[in-house]
Specification:
Order of helices and strands: EEHEEEEEHEHEEH
Strand content: 25-35%
CATH class: Alpha Beta
Radius of gyration: 16 Å
Helix content: 10-25%
Number of helices: 4
Structural class: alpha+beta
CATH superfamily: Gcn5-related N-acetyltransferase (GNAT)
CATH topology: Aminopeptidase
Number of strands: 10
């Protein structure tokens, strides 16, 4: 079992709490995730670019391995990692683990109307992707295409821009950047 630390922002002062990183999250839990997240996702202040996402549409895809951050039975974040590596853009001739979808629970976003519950979920998912990349022999290299609202987050996490992909900014971790990030986050 992998653990990570989330910060509970509902307490004053905020407190650190242990959460679990589930590397092979079962897609059989997606109906519960959507039932919990969908209405809250639609009500986000100012909207969210991913408000149309529906994890149920990803059910049964052999193309993905799913990773989640959980607190007890509550899913705080979810990520779909491609099972097939892609070529690196920043390191010619090498491969990268590609994250196709990554989402934190709506209540963990800074623009949630009731305020954020937990911080650190997105970073924990990225660190888990780096760990999976290590396990797959890609030395922590991870890549993704970012929705515009999340670009600043990926820059702050030390990812490097590498052009565009699917009409969005493409980000990639080099081996060194992935190691530095994982040592800060601790997954």
């Amino acid at each position: 079992m992998l653990t990570t630390i989330l910060r509970d922002l509902r307490t004053n002062p905020p407190t650190d709490i242990d959460a679990e990183v589930v590397l092979d999250f079962p897609d059989s839990r997606f109906p519960d995730v959507e039932a919990t997240w969908s209405a809250d996702r639609l009500g986000l202040a100012g909207g969210a670019e991913h408000r149309h996402w529906d994890w149920l549409r990803k059910l049964g895809s052999p193309n993905y391995r799913y990773v989640a951050v959980t607190l007890g039975t509550s899913v705080e974040g979810l990520m779909a990692v491609a099972r097939t590596p892609r070529p690196c853009r920043l390191s010619a001739g090498l491969q990268v683990l590609y994250v196709d979808f990554i989402e934190v629970a709506p209540w963990n976003l800074p623009w949630h109307p009731k305020g954020m519950r937990f911080s650190g979920t997105g970073k924990s998912l990225l660190a888990a992707a780096c760990r999976a990349s290590d396990a797959d022999g890609f030395s922590g290299r991870v890549a993704l295409a970012s929705l515009p609202q999340a670009e600043g987050f990926y820059r702050a996490c030390g990812m490097t821009e590498g052009g565009t992909s699917y009409g969005m900014v493409y980000f990639e971790y080099t081996e060194a950047a992935a190691q530095a990030f994982r040592s800060r986050v601790g997954v």
